[in-house]
Design a protein that fits this description.
alpha/beta; 14 strands; globular; binds (2S)-2-hydroxybutanedioic acid
């Protein structure tokens, strides 16, 4: 069987450190698929990245055939089939969101161009580095050849976990959770279509004020809560969500279920403006592509919230429009 080549940017970061060893151990593609890791990071990080490579070697992973390392995406991403774009410039103290978008824009233009030129024809790309929806939009603009997605699985997992805790039910009892919109504090965790033990969630949790206020706010601000407590942004949970997202893209979705994923909004049936990367409920046939689940009903509450997250994404696009 051919080796699958997996490209990872920001390879020296915390998310990568939580992700690489799991991929190398077969958690993404199973125990019968040999893999190669193509690790990209900035020149200043390469010495540390070589330390990561030493550790990968020390694990003696039977499935790991090869590790390539470098800082030039045209070199490192040659032939990659699966790509995790984890690296992004973090927001520093006093930095405006506008500057963050623009700084990251440069990174994602370069990576988009490189992927278009050197990635395998069927490559699937997941953008995790923040602001991930708009970073994804930029990279996709420069690579019209491959499939690009941005991650809201972490938000979906957070929502499922909070609902299971509230109802004291197992996590597997919670189904149909959707995140609409941006991976930001305007995201909309949609509990109206969720179910617990096959029953509509609203029949199980008879507490609309908690759902509309505390629950939504907790999911929206969970990333910030992790940063406050841990002193850095989520890594283990982000890596887990990245793995789960890619598996969701590469495997058929069980009938009747769906997952949240940021996709280019062109042609969606919900009336979200085209030309942004927006999180929708999606399913996959297992070919690395998705179809948006159509026709979930939006009540007034959802409509108003979703309009806000759409507005934010349109504003983000305005800021980086000159880069497109
Ligand atoms: C998260 O949701 O935990 C992260 O996206 C937060 C961040 O800014 O890195």
């Amino acid at each position: 069987m051919d080796v699958k080549r997996i490209g990872i940017s920001g390879s020296c970061g915390n998310v990568a450190y939580s992700l690489l060893f799991r991929i190398a151990n077969g958690e993404l593609l199973g125990q019968n698929q040999r893999i190669a890791l193509h690790l990209l990071d900035q020149p200043a990080a390469l010495t540390r990245l070589n330390g990561v490579v030493l550790e990968l070697e020390d694990c003696a992973f039977p499935l790991l055939d090869e590790v390539r390392v470098g800082s030039d995406p045209y070199e490192v991403f040659k032939g990659v089939d699966i790509v995790f774009l984890l690296g992004a410039k973090p927001r520093s103290a006093g930095m405006e969101r506008r500057d963050l978008l623009l700084e990251n824009g440069k990174i994602f233009i370069e990576q988009g161009k490189a992927l278009k030129e050197v990635a395998a024809d069927n490559a699937v790309v997941l953008v995790v580095g923040n602001p991930c929806n708009t970073n994804c939009l930029i990279a996709k603009h420069y690579d019209d050849k491959h499939r690009f997605f941005s991650m809201t699985m972490l938000d979906q997992n957070r929502a499922v976990s909070l609902l299971a805790k509230k109802t004291k039910r197992p996590l597997s009892a919670v189904k149909g959770m959707t995140i609409w919109g941006n991976h930001s504090s305007t995201q909309v965790p949609d509990f109206f279509h969720a179910q617990i033990d096959e029953k509509p969630l609203l029949e199980v949790i008879d507490d609309l004020p908690w759902l509309q206020n505390d629950f939504i706010a907790d999911v929206q601000s969970r990333g910030a809560a992790v940063i406050t407590a841990l002193g850095r942004s989520s890594a283990g949970s982000a890596a887990h969500a990245a793995l789960k997202s890619m598996k969701a893209l590469l495997n058929p979705t069980p009938l009747g279920s769906w997952f949240s994923m940021g996709v280019v909004s062109d042609g969606n049936s919900y009336g979200i403006k085209p030309g942004i990367v927006f999180s929708f409920p999606c399913y996959s046939r297992g070919d690395g592509d998705v179809t948006i689940i159509p026709h979930l009903f939006w009540n007034d509450f959802l409509q108003k919230k979703i309009a806000l997250t759409e507005k934010e994404l349109l504003e983000e696009k305005e800021i980086i429009r000159h880069l497109l």
